[in-house]
Model the fold of this input.
Amino acid sequence: MRGIALTLGLLLAAGANAAPASRADVGRIMQELGMGRLGQDAATTLVGNVPQLQGLDAKAQACAATQASALMDTQFQQIVVDKLGADGQTLIDEWKAFLATPAGGDMARTFQASAAEMSGDDSAAGFEPGEASKEKIAAFMGTPAFEQFIGGFGDDSQLPEDIGQQLAEVLQRECQVALDPEQIS
Done:
């Protein structure tokens, strides 16, 4: 009976230490991996594809793009936070520890080069980590920390259903731009 009580106590104590990741920590890791432009890229696409926003003057378009970028960054970060789950902070701590190593730095540079190449900047092309780093990167890529973080960008990850309403509200409040939420899909 004491064994059961002790086991139950340990399980409860372990659960009490679990904490979700913060959006700020997720944002810093995204930045370090070269994913800092995701919100901006999504906002640029949005402004370019929504007729109501295309007709705005340059100042209003810039405000709309800035606000949409901030909203999208927050949403992308929250998707990753949700994907990391209740143990998110522990997984983020694993990311921080790995990125602080030479192999983690090499992985970050690889991600940065890939992100730059996708946006048309080939200046970082050709970076290749050494064999020792490759082995450590491969091992880290097999961890729940990596898989769940990157899983936040998978096909099953979606923006909230009310993203159009959220964007319309922020554009009205911050830019005095009226936008029909139904224009956002």
Observations:
- The radius of gyration is 20 Å.
- The CA atoms of residues 141 and 147 lie 7 Å apart.
- Confidence is low (pLDDT under 50) at residues 1-16.
- The chain is about 70% helix and 0% strand.
